[in-house]
Amino acid sequence: MKAKLILLLALFTVGSLIHADVRLPNVLSNHMVLQRDLQVPVWGWADAGEKITVSFAGQKKQTTADKKGNWMIKLGKLKANASPATLSVQGKNLIQLENVLVGEVWICSGQSNMEWRVSQCANPKEEIAKSNYPKIRLFDVPGHTVHPIPQREGKGEWKVCSPQSVASFSATGYYFGRRLHLSLGIPVGLIGSNWGGTKIEPWTTLDGFKSVPELSKLAESVSAYTAETKVKGGTPSAIYHSMVHPLTPYAMRGAIWYQGESNGGEGITYYQKKRALVQGWRKAFQNPDLGFYWVQLCNFRKANVMEVKNPSKEESRPEGGDGWARIREAQTQALDLKHTGMAVIIDLADAHNPNDIHPKNKQDVGGRLAQWALNQTYGMQGLVASGPLYESHKIKGGKLHLSFKNVGQGLMVGKKVGLDPTQPVVGGTLKHFSIAGADKKWHWADAKIVGDQVVLSSKEVRKPVAARYAYTMNPADANLYNVDGLPAGPFRTDDW
Fold first, then answer.
1. What are the structural domains of the chain?
2. Of 59, 185, 360, 435, which is most buried with the most CB atoms under 10 A?
3. Kind and range of the H or E run holding 96
4. Does the pTM exceed 0.90?
5. Residue 128 and residue 15: Cα distance in Å, rounded?
6. What local confidence, expressed as pLDDT, does residue 308 receive?
7. For residue 210, what is the enclosing H or E element?
8. 2 burial class (0-12, 13-18, 19+ CB within 10 angstroms)?
9. How far is CA 182 from CA 133, 295, 382, in A?
10. Contacting residues for 428 by C-beta, under 8 A, at least 6 apart
11. Residue range 288-333, pLDDT digits in tens
């Protein structure tokens, strides 16, 4: 009996000591990058009523853990700093986080095309060998996990970017971050949280679903979850709860998102879900201006073809509308949200293997996402944000005149091959434009660049009323670019 009492006392003492230690989430650790120019939350757990002091960069903030042992302080706005510094957290114990930098922080999320590692994509040996960027830091959320309710603690660790750490990190995320780092000249922190084959719903927060009236049934479903609710990888909010919520409210500038293939059969519903995702994450990370840049789905498989007498002469249907045409449209529509952008990549699929859903050229994907961020988030007006995006049209004398945003240095017929820069095709013919009259019958258009516009006409359509461009599953021959080398986005002017 006496031995059992001694054992219980010992266990109680050890348990009390463990509980007394101030603890931090894994995302607050050595080698991290803190976000400049925003308030920076630092949070964790301790004994109820325990006094906590956080010291960093000349600031000293104090707070007291609440009844449940939770605590948080917010550091004032920090200036970018590439010199390693120490962040101290003092409670009943002392935690010192070493090699901390201050710069720009982004989360990189989505399904397999975001998850694909540098080692899996184009030129892996060369890219890994030259990846010695000690001012870039990488945090990868490990595994694929779900939970019915939001979790406060998760796994992962910050690593210094090097050939040893970059190989297993998101290729799109790394190339995005590398361009930001080289362009801005300050530290960049990248947080990877991704899962191949997933839909958008499991990544979305309850508050996000609540923010979109059309998604009220999803909100009701998630609201009913308890800790005992069984969830899987496709369950709404379940991935967010386990793989994103533990990161909140880490201060960051924005998010990049590469997902949509698993929702590929949708149209307007994906637009609604994208709004829910963005609005939910902005609330969760306590940043209403969180930049959010996504990748429009790549060209994939074959374009829809017409039935012709000679099967060897397949012709794409001028009306399109097949496959991913409508989800690409939904991705474009979501640009009505402030501080968002979309990388168009309908020219990046492997021409020799159109059935590969994972284009290897992630260098251009990350670079085009960074182009948006550099222009819009960081104010580099000398860079055009993207390729041409449809803005408006007018009918003049039997011809349809198209106007675009993001014309940049002008419009051109272009050709993109592999990792090489886009090349102008002198004397080339624009392809994949179609027009229709009031009869709603589509015909391929004669398309010409006239100044900053594209003018369409067709002998079969005397009075055109609508136009479409690259509005099909695989518009591989679409070739309108701006002189800056960025492709025009697919669009249609009708709602038929």
1. 19-297 (3.40.50)
2. 435
3. strand 94-110
4. yes
5. 45
6. 36
7. helix 206-210
8. exposed
9. 10, 21, 16
10. 413, 415, 479
11. 999 999 999 999 987 654 433 443 344 679 999 999 999 999 999 9
